């Protein structure tokens, strides 16, 4: 196992929608805030600017009433193939992690892969054990699939 492999989580899914449509769901806040997050979560956006160096500043509302401050900055955007980002609680979060999302045509659908690398193995393990990051990632991609194929989640705010 490489040093990176022990710090990463990879989640993927095939979605029955064209790549451009799936990519768009990641690039426009009116879409993102309708599906982002694991099951039972909703999102309130405070700022959103989709460009390299731009920021998505938002709050995820957990089903138990807990609010999670979230911050994403895009580090690379290659439409409609790839998005790279840095994700944490704020711009100066020392535990922020990096994710690369790839969108590949797969028949008439899209194979999306979300590869996340944490700063340390310990932070990865905490994300898996405490925050159920693997299942949460799968649920997030499930919500994306439901959204782009026509089943819209409710409870999100833009």
TrEMBL record:
It holds the Pfam family AHSA1. InterPro entries: ASHA1/2-like_C. CDD domains: SRPBCC_CalC_Aha1-like_1. Residues 16-148 form the Activator of Hsp90 ATPase homologue 1/2-like C-terminal domain. This is SRPBCC family protein. It comes from Pseudonocardia abyssalis.
């Amino acid at each position: 196992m490489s040093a990176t492999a022990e710090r990463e989580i990879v989640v993927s899914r095939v979605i029955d929608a064209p790549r451009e449509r799936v990519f768009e769901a990641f690039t426009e806040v009116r879409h993102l805030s309708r599906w982002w997050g694991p099951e039972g979560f909703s999102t309130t956006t405070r700022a959103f600017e989709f460009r390299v160096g731009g920021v998505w500043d938002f709050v995820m509302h957990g089903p138990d009433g807990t609010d999670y401050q979230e911050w994403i900055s895009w580090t690379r955007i290659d439409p409609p193939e790839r998005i790279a980002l840095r994700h944490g609680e704020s711009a100066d979060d020392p535990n922020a992690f990096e994710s690369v999302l790839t969108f590949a045509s797969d028949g008439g659908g899209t194979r999306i892969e979300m590869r996340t690398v944490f700063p340390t193995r310990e932070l990865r393990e905490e994300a898996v054990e405490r925050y159920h990051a693997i299942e949460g990632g799968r649920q997030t991609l499930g919500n994306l699939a439901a959204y782009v194929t026509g089943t819209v989640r409710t409870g999100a705010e833009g």
